[in-house]
Amino acid sequence: MLDSIREKVLSGQRLTKEDAIALFQSNDIFDIGRLASYAAEKKNGKNAYFIVNRHINPTNICVNRCKFCAFSRSKGEEGAYELTIEEIIEKLKGGHGPHVMDHGFSEVHIVGGLHPDWPFEYYLNMLSAIKKEFPHIAVKAFTAVEIDYMSKISGLNLKDTLARLKKSGLDLMPGGGAEIFAEAIRNKLCPEKISGDRWLEVMETAHMAGIKTNATMLYGHLEGIEDRVDHLFKLRDLQDRTGGFQAFIPLSYHPKNTEIGGFYSSGIDDLKTIAVSRLVLDNFDHIKAYWIMLGEKVSQVALLFGADDIDGTIIEEKITHSAGAMSEEAMTKEELEYLIKKADKIPVQRDAFYNPLVFCR
Ligand code: V47
Ligand code: SF4
Fold first, then answer.
1. Please, are residues 312 and 51 in contact by the beta-carbon 8 Å criterion?
2. Tens of pLDDT along 232-253?
3. What is the rounded distance in angstroms from the CA atom of residue 264 to the CA atom of residue 290?
4. How far, in Å, are 85, 100, 105, 293, 315 from residue 93 at the CA level?
5. Ligand 2 in reach of 58 Cβ (< 6 A)
6. What are the φ/ψ torsions at residue 247 (nearest 5 degrees)?
7. What is the pLDDT of residue 102?
8. Can you tell me the distance from the alpha carbon of 123 to that of 307, in angstroms, rounded to the nearest whole number?
9. How far apart are CA 141 and CA 296, in angstroms?
10. Measured between alpha carbons, how far is 48 from 40 in angstroms, rounded to an integer?
11. What is the 3-state secondary structure (H, E, C) of the chain?
């Protein structure tokens, strides 16, 4: 079976769902990795991208309370927080936290809970305040789940909601909230969350509005191989229609402090999932090995299994660390470059749209 898949990859043919299932079932991890590495190099050569960025989570108060999420709280619950716009600006200035320095951020990544009381204007004001203070920082904000929620609270349709956000400073969108599209598993994981079809509809509408986005898949919880393959093919189909996805990021499930519990994903599964994603998603330019979730060392090794991006400096990370992440919360530019170089790749500092800023040879 792997021989016929190898033939297809080498001759540029698309993989089928059966091929993807066979890859996930196979334990020839080195063969799969070598094939994915070939596919990655065809797209990005020896380049491995990183970005100087910062994450901000404006609130952890969320009406959804997904069963895999250890970050969220209900209003009034111990540990619930909400940031003011001034506090968000302060964080971007680098005035808070243990990593105070001049970061020269290219991007701020903003995602948070679905707050029961914040009006749509709060999000618009947040965007315009950031743009006013930092016109050169790209704002990558709000998952498809948050966009759907904003459309509900504003009474606007998706297209108009996105247009208002874009006008206020939204540059692109992250890929969170996709989880697993398959309905039976999704209903167990996050019964209050929008459906997989709605997630795809929000992304399609964003792409049509000229907003680039990422895509993710949460794996390692209750799903089976067929669910993962179904998820990847739905993304590949949408990308065929819009071309609006920049990167795919498999998110490894972290079980601590969650309602569903369970185990951390294994290193082998992490690498296999990166590799199969690279092979199936032939219309995605980038596969990201998110070091916060994979750990610094597995994400480095993932660069030899089909990934071409390890994300960025991050600075502050709450979602995965609430669920037992073993990584640090921040890496310096030099540490990211070091990991990439030691994987025998060329570190390329990029902007939010994958334009190279610095090749670090
Ligand atoms: O939407 C929540 C996931 C996502 C857990 O687009 C969990 O560049 C693992 O989407 N274990 C947020 N995952 C993170 C995300 C992301 C991260 C980095 C870069 C980009 C990008 C996107 O984290 C959530 C949810 O899918 N998540 N809880 C957990 N226990
Ligand atoms: Fe809320 Fe997102 Fe956590 Fe679900 S994953 S509870 S939507 S913050």
1. yes
2. 999 999 999 999 999 999 999 9
3. 15
4. 12, 9, 10, 26, 12
5. no
6. -140, 150
7. 47
8. 33
9. 24
10. 10
11. CHHHHHHHHHCCCCCCHHHHHHHHHCCCHHHHHHHHHHHHHHHHCCEEEEECEEEECCECECCCCCCCCCCCECCCCCCCCECCHHHHHHHHHCCCCCCCCCCCCCEEEECCCCCCCCCHHHHHHHHHHHHHHCCCCEEEECCHHHHHHHHHHHCCCHHHHHHHHHHHCCCEECCCCCCCCCHHHHHHHCCCCCCHHHHHHHHHHHHHCCCEEEEEEEECCCCCHHHHHHHHHHHHHHHHHHCCEEEEEEEECCCCCCCCCCCCCCHHHHHHHHHHHHHHCCCCCEEECCHHHHCHHHHHHHCCCCCCEEEECCCCCCHHHHCCCCCCCCCCHHHHHHHHHHCCCEEEEECCCCCEEEECC
Ligand 1 centroid to 193 CA: how many Å?
Answer: 14
pTM metric for this prediction: 0.97
Whether residue 322 has its Cβ less than 6 Å from ligand 2? no
Q: What is the pLDDT of residue 100?
A: 37
Taken in order of first residue, the domains within the chain and their CATH numbers are 15-52+140-359 (3.20.20.70)
> For residue 60, which atom of ligand 2 is closest to its CA?
8
Write down the mean pLDDT value for the chain.
Answer: 96
Cα separation of 34 and 6, whole Å? 10
Q: What is the pLDDT of residues 194-237, one digit of tens each?
A: 999 999 999 999 999 999 999 999 999 999 999 999 999 999 99
Residue 158, phi then psi, degrees to nearest 5:
-60, -45
319 lines ligand 1 (CB under 6 A): yes
pLDDT digits (tens, 9 = 90+) for 303-360: 999 999 999 999 999 999 999 999 999 999 999 999 999 999 999 999 999 999 977 6
**Which residues, 6 or more positions from 164, have their beta carbon under 8 angstroms from its beta carbon?**
120, 124, 154, 156
Ligand 2 and 64: CB distance under 6 A: yes
Say which residue the tokens 């909230």 belong to.
177
